Amino acid sequence: MTENPISGEVSADRADKLFQQHLNETYRNTDHLFEKVMLLQWLACIILALMMSAHTWVGESGQIGTHVWAALVLGGAISVFPVWMIRVWPGRTCTRYVVAVAQMLMSGLLIGLTGGRIETHFHVFGSLVLLSFYRDWRVLIPATIVVALDHFVRGAFWPATVYGVSNAATWRSFEHVGWVVFENVLLVISCLRSIEEMRSVANRTAALEASERGARLIFEQAPIGMAVLGLDEKFAQVNTRFCQMVGYSDQELRQRTAEEITFAEDIEPGRQCARSLLDGMARYTSDKRYVHNSGRVLWASRTACLMRDLDGKPEQFLLMVEDISDRKKSERELREAKDDADRANQAKSEFLSRMSHELRTPLNAILGFGQLLERQNPTDAQRTRIRYIISAGRHLLNLINEVLDISRIEAGNLQLSLEPVSVGEVLQETLDLMRPLAADRTIDLSVMTSLDSSCYVLADRQRLKQVLLNLFTNAVKYTPIGGKVTVSDIFCGEGALRLIVTDTGPGIPVDKLSRLFTPFDRLGAESSSVEGTGLGLALCQRLVHAMGGTVGVSSTAGNGSTFWVELPLTQSPLERLAEQMSGAQEREQGGQVERRQILYIEDNLSNLTLIEQMLADEPGVELITAMQGQMGLDLARQHLPDLILLDLHLPDIPGWEVLARLQKEDATRGIPVIVISADATARQIDRLMKAGASAYLTKPLDMGEFYRVVSETKASPTATPECVAA
Ligand code: ADP
After folding, report:
1. Sheet of 225-230, strand order
2. Distance from residue 400's CA to the centre of ligand 1 (Å)
């Protein structure tokens, strides 16, 4: 059998060796026992001879000298040689055999000295038992032969010296030897059993050794640091990896406690760990810092458990420790990089927010007054011009929104308002916006669709327009002058509608199609005269996906392109416009009109004028205005209006501070506040809504939304805050 130190498989060689060692030890120990026994027996013989000299041997007279000399000389002759051999060759086979013979001769001498007293025959039996201590049954053979010869010879010639009578029957010798043989049988069995036990002990010891060696090897050669600590936290055992990790030698560590090499701040958590384990926790895993011998601080992931004795009493702590300094370093670097990126992102968001505000404020005036003019019965020519102003304003607004969208998508913050959208209407509005551009480039913009206002898809209206506008714009701007762009549609299976934009432009090479929706990748168009950013299609794809639709393209270089958008169809909803109209009608019913005082706090004159004019025709509404925050607060306290419209960028106190002060005072806390701001970022909206605003409207204002929110926002404690982004 081969030895496997890890599995603890037993080595037969090792078991043999252990067995042999044990046997040799038994031989030597028994030899030394006989060394003493021999000398004692010799002495006892002399004493006995001296004592016996007063008596006569049976039937004969004896001389004192004869007995004593016999004990002294014969006893000496029998004992000295084996004692000498024991001294010189302890444990040897020959020594054992000499001892066996001598011991039995000594029995014979003793029997002879006592004149064959039957009691001294027991010395023979005792001697055989002593010889069996060797666990070598073969030594019983010469011993038995000596006893047999002694009895037969002396029984025949000097029976008195062995049986105490002058005439002894021959059977007595046979009987004596027979008892000796009987005892030998028992002793041989006992020896063989002992040998068997010794072998099994050797096997078990060898197995235990192998398993211990395996455990030691695992401990020593483990690729992680391992340490055994006493309950006083002193290192009892450490492996090589742990020593390398903390830079101390095995001996140095054994003279230290774990706390002595622990980073100061982690000492208390370490004590907590020990307490938890002693309180019964199975294992405790934590990251902690050690101080390396060189003074450097290293991070380690440490798992500790408690080792108990067989009675369950806590004995030692075992640690399985791993150096995670590198991981901690890269985590820290990652965190720092993320913080940097967050800061940069924050700066970008703030920049975008500010920029969007700066651009949205003048747009508010353009679109707001444009919409007002549209409502004042303009002539047809004026209406067309107003529409151009409004559509251009909206286009510009879209551009601003696109920049904001990119940042929102990057931040995963895109907010959509999915609702049933009339595809016919959206298509019409988008195509209207496109026609001037198509006309400019003498592109034939043909619409091969019969969609009416009753066909609805589930989408965000603004986002759908944005997507279509981008596809139409691309088709028109990339198709050479005089080309053709066709807009068509088909109903697809599973309740979806596909809008298709086909152009006769240059087409897109197959190998570039996969890069089409990659942000900022213009597929080489950057070297052409066609302006663009490379963001439109990337935005389209993300927006359409977010609305639950798909977008695709098929194109061949030189043969034009076909882009399509597929969106889920939905049932026609109740007309929101009808709701608004009914709301307006209610407002116009003079007799039931409730009177409302509205305070508008805004520093921008054009915005102020716009709201004034928008509310001028509203029945029952009285508008008071303030161009500064403090003044607005004073007016609020003085008049306790029914509603406050609040701009955020005020010259003295920021709008959010005005809101906070209104919320703080008992008298003004119940007045609903609608924030009107050009800052359309989700963060800002969220912040103001949390601060207590009832609604948030973004500039440029959508008039329908404005009227609805103003009419619905009442001083009700159960009113749900609302946010409407243009
Ligand atoms: P851009 O601002 O450059 O138009 P887009 O994301 O809208 O960005 O489009 C990405 C690129 O795809 C364009 O730069 C152009 O090379 C190509 N492309 C888009 N639409 C068409 C089209 N209808 N015909 C040919 N090429 C197109």
Report:
1. 235-238, 225-230, 314-323, 297-308, 283-291
2. 20
Q: Can you give the pTM of this predicted structure?
A: 0.44
198 sits in the region (left: phi over 0; alpha: psi -120 to 50; else beta) called alpha
Structure-token pair, residue 166: 């002058």
User: Which one-letter DSSP state was computed for residue 594?
Assistant: P
Task: Give pLDDT, residue 683.
Answer: 76
**Which residue from 317, 292, 290 is spatially nearest to 301, judged by alpha carbons?**
290
The response to whether residue 502 sits with its C-beta less than 6 Å from ligand 1 reads no
- Of the candidates 652, 724, 712, the one whose C-alpha atom is nearest the C-alpha of residue 688 is 724
Q: Are strands 561-570 and 621-626 parallel, antiparallel or unpaired?
A: unpaired
Say if ligand 1 is within 6 A of residue 503 CB.
yes
Predicted local distance difference test score (pLDDT) of residue 290: 95
- Nearest Cα residue to 501 out of 546, 451, 467, 541: 467
Please tell me the residue having the least CA distance from ligand 1 atom 4.
Answer: 532
522 lines ligand 1 (CB under 6 A): yes
Is the preceding omega at residue 314 within 30 degrees of 0, hence cis? no
Ligand 1 contacts CB of residue 227 (under 6 A): no
Q: Is the CB of 506 under 6 A from ligand 1?
A: yes
Minimum CA distance residue for ligand 1 atom 21 = 474
Q: What is the pLDDT of residues 555-592, one digit of tens each?
A: 988 889 999 999 998 877 554 445 545 555 555 554 55
CA 656, CA 693: separation in Å to the nearest integer?
Answer: 9
DSSP state of 548: T
508-543: pLDDT as tens digits: 999 999 999 887 789 988 888 887 777 789 889 988
